[in-house]
Design brief:
single chain; alpha/beta; 50% helix
Length: 280
């Protein structure tokens, strides 16, 4: 997950909102994001606009990677924040927990989530647990999946899980992050590449294990620890490669490690005939 340093309050989406998720044509890297943004606005406002609107496009070069654009951060986090918290933990929430929609802590941590990357298996576990907790709470509206979650899972997630297709959901928005989309979307796409491309994952894992010094690993874990679980080695390897390979890596969390590791990591990937998927 790409996280912003500034915490903003989440304006919780109304429980009875009108939600719409639309699948669009494939996104061909590096993509034409400005054209998509313009078309997104046209499509959204042609519908009313609805309270919640998102468009998803599968990456043409990475089967299963669904790049999903949301109207704003509240809408994105309304659909995906609880699933991300369940998958990775955030703030005072431990991995595996599902916050209630009316909890102040959920509003507090929402600004830390500037994008999402979620595997199909994690989404499946989250939704199953959310529905189970909903049933055991006697259909408490603050426990049950909200309208945005229901719409997003019904349109994008559940059909692919039923067909047993590979799936990684990438969530982004461009209005409130303060982060150029070239950085935020590419960062999340690199996570999807790590999840879905075994050779990419094996190459970047081997680089972390064999080329990154133990001192630098310790410093990287410490640097990421305020927002990531430093004890999760899978997560540390994944975040390392995404922060090092993303555009303008020199201005992000692992900036001081870019000089020593970006070119050697790119060379290791090129030696395997692999190129990072970046969005422009």
């Amino acid at each position: 997950m790409k996280r912003a340093a500034l915490l903003l309050l989440l304006t919780l989406l109304p429980l009875g909102l009108r939600a719409e998720v639309v699948e669009q044509s494939a996104l061909v890297p590096p993509g034409d994001m400005e054209q998509w943004m313009q078309e997104f606005a046209e499509h959204r406002y042609a519908l009313g606009p609805p309270d919640f609107y998102a468009e998803c496009r599968e990456l043409s070069t990475l089967a299963g990677a669904q790049v999903c654009y949301f109207g704003d951060r509240d809408q994105m986090n309304g659909a995906l924040l609880r699933a991300s918290i369940f998958t990775e933990g955030l703030g005072t929430y431990a991995k595996g927990s599902i916050p209630k929609l009316n909890e102040p802590e959920l509003a507090r941590v929402s600004g830390a989530a500037a994008g999402h990357d979620l595997q199909g298996s994690d989404l499946a576990e989250f939704y199953a647990k959310a529905e189970a907790e909903c049933a055991s709470s006697n259909q408490d509206a603050n426990v049950c999946p909200n309208a945005a979650e229901k719409e997003f899972f019904a349109k994008i997630v559940l059909p692919r899980l039923e067909r047993k297709e590979p799936l990684v959901v990438i969530g982004f928005e461009t209005l409130t992050t303060g982060i150029p989309y070239q950085q935020s979307v590419s960062h999340e796409v690199l996570h999807a590449q790590y999840f879905l491309d075994p050779e990419f994952r094996e190459t970047t894992d081997a680089f972390w294990n064999e080329r990154v010094t133990e001192r630098d690993k310790a410093e990287i874990r410490h640097t990421l620890s305020p927002i990531y679980d430093e004890k999760n080695e899978f997560l540390m390897r994944n975040e390392f490669q995404a922060y090092i390979l993303m555009p303008d890596a020199e201005s992000n969390q692992l900036a001081r490690f870019v000089k020593n590791y970006r070119k050697p990591l790119l060379a290791a990937l090129r030696a395997k005939g692999i190129a990072p998927i970046l969005i422009q």
